[in-house]
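Our preliminary data section would be incomplete without showing what the modeling component actually yields. Below, a chain of 190 amino acids is followed by its predicted structure, encoded as C-alpha coordinates that our downstream tools consume directly.
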Amino acid sequence: MSNHRHFIIHKPYGYLSQFVYELKRNKKLLGELHDFPEGTMAIGRLDEDSEGLLLLTTDGMMSEIVRSKKVTKEYYVQVDGVMHQEAINELEQGVLIGFKGTKYKTKPCRSFILDTIPDFPERGKKIRDERHGPTSWISITINEGKFRQVRKMTAAVGFPTLRLVRVRVGNVFLNKLRSGEVQEIESFNV
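Predicted structure:
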Protein backbone atom coordinates (compact mmCIF):
# COMPACT_ATOMS: atom_id res chain seq x y z
CA MET A 1 0.00 0.00 0.00
CA SER A 2 1.40 3.37 -1.05
CA ASN A 3 1.50 6.36 1.26
CA HIS A 4 1.49 8.70 -1.71
CA ARG A 5 -1.37 11.14 -2.18
CA HIS A 6 -2.94 12.32 -5.45
CA PHE A 7 -5.07 15.35 -6.23
CA ILE A 8 -6.89 16.90 -9.16
CA ILE A 9 -7.44 20.61 -9.30
CA HIS A 10 -9.23 23.03 -11.59
CA LYS A 11 -6.38 25.51 -11.94
CA PRO A 12 -7.82 29.00 -12.21
CA TYR A 13 -6.67 31.66 -14.63
CA GLY A 14 -3.80 33.72 -13.20
CA TYR A 15 -2.13 31.01 -11.09
CA LEU A 16 1.26 29.42 -11.73
CA SER A 17 1.42 25.60 -11.77
CA GLN A 18 3.97 25.57 -8.96
CA PHE A 19 4.38 25.99 -5.22
CA VAL A 20 7.55 28.11 -5.13
CA TYR A 21 8.41 31.13 -7.26
CA GLU A 22 11.95 32.45 -6.93
CA LEU A 23 11.60 35.71 -8.85
CA LYS A 24 10.59 38.86 -7.02
CA ARG A 25 7.30 39.46 -8.85
CA ASN A 26 4.19 38.70 -6.83
CA LYS A 27 2.51 35.63 -8.36
CA LYS A 28 -0.39 33.42 -7.28
CA LEU A 29 0.73 29.85 -6.50
CA LEU A 30 -1.09 26.51 -6.10
CA GLY A 31 -0.41 26.37 -2.36
CA GLU A 32 -2.78 29.31 -1.91
CA LEU A 33 -5.70 27.14 -3.07
CA HIS A 34 -5.34 24.17 -0.69
CA ASP A 35 -3.18 22.85 2.15
CA PHE A 36 -1.26 20.20 0.18
CA PRO A 37 1.06 17.74 1.95
CA GLU A 38 4.80 18.36 1.84
CA GLY A 39 6.41 17.03 -1.34
CA THR A 40 3.35 17.60 -3.55
CA MET A 41 4.25 18.40 -7.16
CA ALA A 42 2.30 19.35 -10.25
CA ILE A 43 2.39 16.79 -13.05
CA GLY A 44 3.06 18.85 -16.14
CA ARG A 45 2.08 22.49 -16.23
CA LEU A 46 -0.52 24.92 -17.38
CA ASP A 47 0.79 28.42 -18.01
CA GLU A 48 -0.49 31.35 -15.98
CA ASP A 49 -3.10 32.29 -18.63
CA SER A 50 -4.42 28.72 -18.98
CA GLU A 51 -7.05 26.99 -16.87
CA GLY A 52 -8.35 23.54 -16.20
CA LEU A 53 -7.31 20.10 -15.09
CA LEU A 54 -4.00 19.82 -13.29
CA LEU A 55 -2.87 16.62 -11.58
CA LEU A 56 -0.80 16.80 -8.39
CA THR A 57 0.99 13.99 -6.57
CA THR A 58 3.58 13.17 -3.95
CA ASP A 59 4.77 10.28 -6.19
CA GLY A 60 7.58 11.27 -8.57
CA MET A 61 7.25 7.99 -10.50
CA MET A 62 3.57 8.74 -11.21
CA SER A 63 4.65 12.12 -12.54
CA GLU A 64 6.95 10.40 -15.05
CA ILE A 65 4.17 8.06 -16.21
CA VAL A 66 1.61 10.81 -16.74
CA ARG A 67 4.06 13.09 -18.58
CA SER A 68 4.98 10.32 -21.04
CA LYS A 69 3.89 10.54 -24.67
CA LYS A 70 1.54 7.58 -24.05
CA VAL A 71 -0.89 9.78 -22.10
CA THR A 72 -3.08 12.16 -24.11
CA LYS A 73 -4.14 15.61 -22.95
CA GLU A 74 -7.33 17.25 -24.26
CA TYR A 75 -7.90 20.99 -24.35
CA TYR A 76 -10.95 23.09 -25.17
CA VAL A 77 -9.71 26.21 -26.90
CA GLN A 78 -11.57 29.41 -27.65
CA VAL A 79 -10.03 30.97 -30.75
CA ASP A 80 -10.34 34.32 -32.47
CA GLY A 81 -12.51 33.95 -35.58
CA VAL A 82 -14.77 31.30 -37.09
CA MET A 83 -12.76 28.07 -37.23
CA HIS A 84 -13.09 26.02 -40.42
CA GLN A 85 -12.40 22.41 -41.33
CA GLU A 86 -9.28 23.18 -43.40
CA ALA A 87 -7.57 24.66 -40.32
CA ILE A 88 -8.68 21.65 -38.23
CA ASN A 89 -7.14 19.34 -40.85
CA GLU A 90 -3.85 21.28 -40.66
CA LEU A 91 -3.80 21.00 -36.86
CA GLU A 92 -4.42 17.25 -37.08
CA GLN A 93 -1.57 16.71 -39.53
CA GLY A 94 0.91 18.76 -37.50
CA VAL A 95 1.98 22.37 -37.91
CA LEU A 96 5.28 24.23 -37.66
CA ILE A 97 5.75 26.14 -34.42
CA GLY A 98 8.71 27.89 -32.88
CA PHE A 99 10.39 25.94 -30.08
CA LYS A 100 13.70 26.86 -28.42
CA GLY A 101 14.71 29.09 -31.33
CA THR A 102 14.02 26.58 -34.09
CA LYS A 103 11.02 25.38 -36.07
CA TYR A 104 9.33 22.22 -34.81
CA LYS A 105 6.56 20.25 -36.52
CA THR A 106 3.97 19.10 -34.01
CA LYS A 107 2.96 15.44 -33.95
CA PRO A 108 -0.38 14.46 -35.49
CA CYS A 109 -3.24 15.11 -33.09
CA ARG A 110 -7.01 14.90 -32.87
CA SER A 111 -9.00 18.10 -33.29
CA PHE A 112 -12.58 19.11 -34.02
CA ILE A 113 -14.91 22.08 -33.79
CA LEU A 114 -17.16 21.97 -30.72
CA ASP A 115 -20.88 22.13 -31.56
CA THR A 116 -21.76 23.99 -28.38
CA ILE A 117 -19.94 26.50 -26.21
CA PRO A 118 -18.51 24.69 -23.16
CA ASP A 119 -20.21 25.43 -19.86
CA PHE A 120 -17.22 26.97 -18.08
CA PRO A 121 -17.61 29.67 -15.46
CA GLU A 122 -16.77 33.21 -16.49
CA ARG A 123 -13.01 33.71 -16.43
CA GLY A 124 -11.54 35.98 -13.75
CA LYS A 125 -10.23 38.40 -16.38
CA LYS A 126 -12.65 39.18 -19.20
CA ILE A 127 -11.35 38.13 -22.60
CA ARG A 128 -13.41 40.43 -24.82
CA ASP A 129 -16.94 40.65 -26.17
CA GLU A 130 -18.83 40.21 -29.44
CA ARG A 131 -17.94 43.73 -30.65
CA HIS A 132 -14.44 42.45 -31.40
CA GLY A 133 -15.71 39.79 -33.80
CA PRO A 134 -16.75 36.14 -33.64
CA THR A 135 -14.97 33.37 -31.76
CA SER A 136 -15.05 29.56 -31.98
CA TRP A 137 -14.42 26.70 -29.57
CA ILE A 138 -12.41 23.65 -30.65
CA SER A 139 -11.02 20.52 -29.02
CA ILE A 140 -7.35 19.58 -29.43
CA THR A 141 -5.96 16.31 -28.06
CA ILE A 142 -2.17 15.93 -28.04
CA ASN A 143 0.32 13.50 -26.53
CA GLU A 144 3.25 15.89 -26.33
CA GLY A 145 3.63 19.15 -24.51
CA LYS A 146 6.07 21.73 -25.81
CA PHE A 147 6.10 25.20 -24.25
CA ARG A 148 2.77 26.94 -25.02
CA GLN A 149 2.24 24.36 -27.78
CA VAL A 150 -1.55 24.54 -28.19
CA ARG A 151 -1.46 28.35 -28.34
CA LYS A 152 1.28 28.21 -30.97
CA MET A 153 -0.61 25.58 -32.96
CA THR A 154 -3.82 27.61 -33.24
CA ALA A 155 -1.85 30.74 -34.14
CA ALA A 156 0.01 28.77 -36.86
CA VAL A 157 -3.31 28.10 -38.64
CA GLY A 158 -4.47 31.70 -38.28
CA PHE A 159 -6.66 31.45 -35.17
CA PRO A 160 -5.00 32.91 -32.06
CA THR A 161 -6.03 31.35 -28.74
CA LEU A 162 -8.20 33.53 -26.51
CA ARG A 163 -8.92 30.98 -23.76
CA LEU A 164 -7.42 27.55 -23.10
CA VAL A 165 -8.89 24.99 -20.69
CA ARG A 166 -7.44 21.48 -20.21
CA VAL A 167 -10.39 19.12 -19.77
CA ARG A 168 -8.71 15.69 -19.71
CA VAL A 169 -5.42 13.94 -18.95
CA GLY A 170 -5.58 10.29 -20.02
CA ASN A 171 -8.74 8.94 -18.36
CA VAL A 172 -8.94 11.70 -15.74
CA PHE A 173 -11.54 14.37 -16.53
CA LEU A 174 -12.10 17.90 -15.24
CA ASN A 175 -15.86 17.20 -15.08
CA LYS A 176 -17.68 19.67 -12.86
CA LEU A 177 -14.82 20.82 -10.63
CA ARG A 178 -15.23 24.53 -10.07
CA SER A 179 -12.36 26.92 -10.69
CA GLY A 180 -9.92 26.61 -7.76
CA GLU A 181 -11.56 23.44 -6.43
CA VAL A 182 -9.29 20.57 -5.31
CA GLN A 183 -10.28 16.91 -5.00
CA GLU A 184 -8.13 14.18 -3.47
CA ILE A 185 -8.40 10.89 -5.36
CA GLU A 186 -7.23 7.32 -4.69
CA SER A 187 -4.96 7.12 -7.75
CA PHE A 188 -4.59 8.26 -11.35
CA ASN A 189 -5.97 5.69 -13.77
CA VAL A 190 -4.45 7.26 -16.88
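The radius of gyration is 17 Å. The mean pLDDT is 90. Preliminary results of this kind motivate Aim 1 of the renewal.
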